[in-house]
Amino acid sequence: MNNHDLAPSARLYFLDWVRILAFFLLILYHVGMYYVTWGWHVKSPFASSGPEPFMMLSSPWRLGLLFFIGGVAASIMLRKLGAAPFLKQRSLRLLVPLVFGMLVIVPPQAYFEVVEKLGYADGYGAFMGLYLQGYGGFCQDGCLDLPTWNHLWFVAYLWIYTMLLGGLVAALGPRFDRIAARLGALLRGWKLIVLPAAVLAVARIALVEHFPTNHAVVNDWCNHAMSFLPFLLGALVARVPGFWSRPAPLRWHALAIVATCWACLVMWIAQWEITPPPPALRPIAYTVYALMAWCATVAACGFAVRHLDHDSPARRYLNEAIFPVYILHQTLIVVLAHAMKPLRIAPGPEALMLVVLTTTLSFGIFELVRRLGVLRPLFGLKFERAAQATVLPVKGTVAHAAG
C-alpha cells in the first residue's frame, strides 16, 4: 500500500513527471513532422517516409495520455475547490493563453506555411491583416482557416472537456463518486487493460472513417472520442482510493502489447501503400490502434508510479515550465526550420539542432515570462509579483497535475 491508497487527493508526483516527459516528447514529434511525408506547415527538402514508423511509436497515445492526466487533475481540483471556483480558475488559465497564442504565438506558423506552399511575398504585416480578417483565400488541397489555433487545439479541447466535467460533477453530485467506485471495482487485473481499450476500439471503429480528425471541434467526433474518453476515465479513477497501485504490476505486459501493436500498425501501413487491405480487415487495425493507445497509458502510469513518485526541485521547476514551453515550441520549430532550410544541412544534424535550439529558446523565453508578472497569465501561469516569480519554491505545492 502506498500513500495514494490512503489519500487519493494527495499530490501525484509521478503524474507530474509523466506529463513533463509527454510534453517533451511533443518537441521531438513536431521536429519529426518536418521530415516525414505527412502534411505539416513547412517541409524539409529531405522529407521521406523513413522516419514515419518511429513517429508511429507515439502517434496513437501521446495526446490521449495527456488528456487522461488532465482528467485526473481536473477531478482532484474539482473536489478541492468546488465547481464554480474551479471552472473560473481553469477558464482563466486556459482561455487567456489560447487567445494570446492565436493572436501572437501561432500566426508565424501560418505565415511561413503560405510562404513555402503558396509563395506568399507580401510580408508578415500584410499577412497579419489578412489573418485577423479571417481571410479564406490561402488554398492548396483545401483552404487555410484563419485565424487558427494549430497545436493549441489541445488547450481548446482541454477547456471544453473541463467545462463538461464541471457540469457533470455539479449535476450528479455524490453520484459521480458512486459511479467512480463502481468503475474502480471493475477495473482490476486484466480488465484494466481490456475494458478501456475495448471502449476506445468500438468508438474508433464506429467513427474514424466518417469523421476524420480536423481539430475544429465541430465534426471532430473520432478525435473527441479518443480524447474525451481518456479524460473522463482519468476524472473517474482519480476518485478511486488505491487505484494507482494497479498499473504497476501490469506495466511490462502493457509495454509488450504496445510494442506488438506498433509492429502490427507499421506492417499494416506498409501493406496499405502496396495494396489496400480489404475493408473487412480495417476494424482489426482500428482495434490495434486503440489497444496501443490505452496500453501505453497503463505502461506510462505503471512505470512512473514505481520509479518517479517523488518530489524534487527539478519537478517543481519543470512542472511550471512545461506549459509555456508547449505553447512556444511548435512556432519555434517552424521558424527555425524555415530559417535553416537554405543552409542545406543534412537531416540528422539539422534535426538535432532543431531539438536543441527549440528546447533552449523555449526555456529561455520561459525564464523571462516567469519573472514578469504581466506575462505570466498569457502563458498559463498563476499571476505573481515579479519578486516572487524569481524564487524557486522549496516546498511542494498543490497545483494542477496537468495543464
Question: Can you characterise this structure?
Answer:
This protein has one domain (3-106, 149-389). 66% of the residues lie in helices and 0% in strands. The chain has helices at residues 3-6, 13-33, 52-55, 62-81, 83-105, 107-118, 123-133, 153-172, 174-186, 191-207, 221-237, 251-274, 282-307, 313-340, 347-369, 386-389. α10 (191-207) packs antiparallel against α13. The longest helix has 28 residues, at 313-340. The protein is globular, with a radius of gyration of 21 Å. The protein starts with a helix and ends in a 14-residue tail after the last helix. The relative contact order is 0.16. GO terms for molecular function: acyltransferase activity. Residues 13-365 form the Acyltransferase domain.
